[in-house]
Design a protein that fits this description.
transmembrane helix, 17-stranded mixed β-sheet, globular, 5-stranded mixed β-sheet, 34% strand, alpha+beta, membrane, transmembrane, BamA/TamA family outer membrane protein, 14 helices
Length: 911
Amino acid sequence: MRHKAIFTVLKRFYPSAGRMAEFSSCKDTIQYHKPRRVVGSFPVFNGVFLVGLCFFLAACSNKSTPKKDEYLLGNQLFKGNSVVKTEALEPLLPQRPNKRFLGIPGATVSLWIYQALDKRYDRDTQRIKFDTLSRYYERQFTRYADDSRKLSSLRRKYNRVVNKYRLRIEEGNWAMRTFGEAPVYFSEKNARNNTVKIKGYLVNEGYRDANVEFITDTLFGRIRTTYNIFEGVPHVLRDVDILTHKDAEIDSLLSATKTASYLKSGNNFRYSDVVSEITRVEQLMRNNGYFGFDRNYLRPVQSATGKRNGGFLVDTTGHNPATDSLFHIVDVKGLQINYPRNHDKHTRYTFNPVGFRVESLPGEPPFVRRDTAVYRGIQYSFTPKHYYSPRVLNEKILIRPGNIYRQNDWDETSRQLSVLDQFLFINIDTDTTNGNIKTLIRVIPHDKYQVTGEGGVNVVQNLPGPFLNGTFRVRNIFGRLENFEVSLRGALDANFGLKNANLVRTLEMGVNTALIFPRFLFPGKIAAGFNRKTPRTIVSLGYNYTNRDFLGSDPDFIRSGFQASLRYNWKKSEFEYLSLTAVDLSILQSKQSQKFGELLDSLYQYGGNPLKFSFQSAVISSINLSYVFNNNIIGQNRRAHYLRLFAESGGTALSLLEPQKVSLGLDGFELYKFLKTNVEYRRYKPLGPKSTLVYRVNTGLIFNYNDRRVAPYEKSLTGGGSNSLRAWPPRRLGLGSAYPNVDLQTGSPIFRNGETTTLQPGVTQYSGYEYRFEQLGDVLMEANVELRGHLFRFVGDVNYALFLDAGNVWRMRLDKGTSPNQNTLNGVFQFNRFYKEFAVGTGIGLRYDLSYFIFRLDMGIKVYDPSRRFVVTNALGQTTTIDERYLLPKFSFRRSSPNYPVFNIGIGYPF
């Protein structure tokens, strides 16, 4: 009866809900309250309640346990652990319950799909087909037993058949494998194994008296497993001695680095710390001349007589009545190191001699005549076609004749040579004798010349346009490991015109040359200190050409520019990178049509939009420094952080010249002066094997101290688009609470379409804004939260994303040449109101991950738009305020909607 009552309630709000009664049933007691009567529209709360109730009833379905005497695996809980965190125990459970859609209890949508398809799927038919094909291939194998080539081809085909039918028999058809998920059943054997693993983890963490048991209970056809944990008192280190007491040289090394030991007094006696200490000692030995030393010399070894040799000498018999009830005492009384057979010590090795040899390219005959040289004790041998400066190579080879063997120098030499992009193959051959390591570095060079190209489609304002890029590379152009590159690019984009909604075509072409040196071009000895940090000096020179509406009779504008830069890059540590641009100079020339220029002037005079300066001839010079910390590895779901710090000073080198004109024969060129800083932080937090929560905060500030108080177009801060607030078009967010586009005569916002395109008395509903112009700002604040998860696999991984974006862009102060109005003032940053002007957007996205390529599609929906508050004045001077800032209820796929979604296409992750 209670089920009948519930479906009566459902039918009142959702007529088709009654049909669910014949599919769902639940023997458990369900309590309900009589719903309130609703008049008019379907409330959002009731919608959420309805969806949740539907999932709940479906979870109660008898179909959840299609196998007799088997139950689906439900939640797995931990109880009793007070010190060891649950987050550390969860990865120990390999069995996971069936995935729940958006985390809603019981909403195992992928399981429902699998079960629905499985009812109609005949595995026996697949087995019969497989058996028939197997017998066919057996006959073929016998027939062609003497033909090895034919037999090899048949075996490859048979292996493909085996893999295909194995998937069909074990995992179902393509739809079941792609969209569905096989039921995960509870197994008592797995639960027992889990208790063993949990106990082993607790013992390794120092809780050697720990005990683990599990209990189960049944709920809605699923078994919930609770692991009850008794941790006990920990085993704590008291006295720690890691010396060997037999080898004075090794003792001195261990004593000098004792503070770096993982075994410290007061810590729990963890097996993981013992393993880490073994690894540390192994690396310490290998970096101090002990070639061939490995961790096996540090592990206990049982002799033929049963005597134990090697490893840490651990005493667990310590006793202290004052603390025995709190923890057990463990003492480490030394480290016993094993020695090679028939030796009573470990030999320290020295590199001597050291050689470098360039081998012939594959397919080339060996050269009889070779060029040889000796520099700083290293013997170099080159082929006639491939000569490299020994002086430059010396900076990359850290293995020095006469130096003791260090594993770090060995590894760093291999890495430094590999990142030069000069050698196809690198190998370090060694031969040891009498404490010396005879070392020969053998390399096979890359081709001197290389041509690469790529083509595709750019998406500008969600409109596609073709592009074509090509690169010509010359390696070792001057014989000093330099690379010279020439890059050509061309693109044809379609976007909306500034004055109307008609499409205009924009042609972009460019050429860029770069000379890359594998060292710092810097006077003095300072550069030598960066040899281990992968230094790079990049000198570049480029030219760009842009023609907007190039097929029109009078193009909107033609813009061209020369760029030159001098940049230093280096790697501070494994995850830290720095870049210093000592010279960044751009000389831009531009001309516009008369109509286009008049439009830009009016936008500047009445709206304060500085776009006009983007189309003026200018000289932009700057110096900048950036720092990046990034331990996020693409393809790995792990805790990671990303931090980028950026600082730039523009016009620094030209500050002594006249403020408005550059006296370098470039009359009429604008000179910009500005200071810019940017801070971006990201955090990646795994929630499961294939789900991640990503946080991002991005802030920026530009202070313009030139007379016009305007930043260069390329340096301005903007928001919106696929890597920012995705509910706003690219570079169209803000400014502040100002309207993005206004009628210059009335100051009314301009709407895209609908009943009216401007504010009118008596009209209370307006369509979306016309985002015609880019919003160039001086202050940027934005934050993003994105939940990433896995949907299914189809060749690559199809993933989903749920995101929430917030932020805005403001002008710091108005230009001297503008006539400010209220709308312009609303776009200026003010401390007393900026926090009220954060725009908020949300949405969903799909990612198609092919590991080497990620295609991204995001749909952004506005939640809060601080600019959608209108004051309408009628003919009598009476005003009406219309507040549409909370836009989420107005979401619609109708283009006339004020909250029509914004679709963003991108490559790779947004952050």
